[in-house]
Amino acid sequence: MKNHFKFLSAFILVLTVSVQAQEKTAITFHESHEEKKKNAPFSDAVEVGKLFFLAGQIGMDHGTRTMVQGDIKTETAQAIKNIQAVLQQHGMDLDRVVKCTVILSTMDDFAAFNEIYTQYFTKKPARTTFAASGLARNAKVEIDVIAVKE
Length: 150
Fold this sequence. Notes:
- With 150 residues, this protein is an alpha+beta fold.
- The protein has helices spanning 2-22, 72-89, 110-120, and strands at residues 27-30, 45-48, 51-54, 60-61, 66-67, 97-104, 126-131, 141-148.
- 33% of the residues lie in helices and 25% in strands.
- The strands form 2 sheets. It has a 6-stranded mixed β-sheet with strand order 1-2-3-8-6-7, with helices on one face.
- A hairpin with a 2-residue loop joins β2 (45-48) and β3 (51-54).
- The radius of gyration is 20 Å and the shape is globular.
- The relative contact order is 0.18.
């Protein structure tokens, strides 16, 4: 009888998990918090359950819509400030980031980038970093993140 009960309990658990997995997860495409970006062909953030997928950010001052002047460190700090602004709109901060994807215009900037990055991302989220030419607005860095909301 014990084995029958264990089997029945396991079967019910598997059935419950399967049904829950088949339920549709809501997807929300959030409009930008910046008026000038409301007509952009992408969302600043897409929410799926508790996950937030943020669009990549570059070192652009969104107040002036111009790139910040300076080196990779200056652009990195601005890109992260832009990420913070989007997260803040959704009640989060950098501590909620679990994954970063970093695109540098050259791997020669890797060490200088890390000097700034590590000041902001103290929880050490998972990260992928690579170099590519031709970033938007001739940027030196672009960063996108995935965050989890409580």
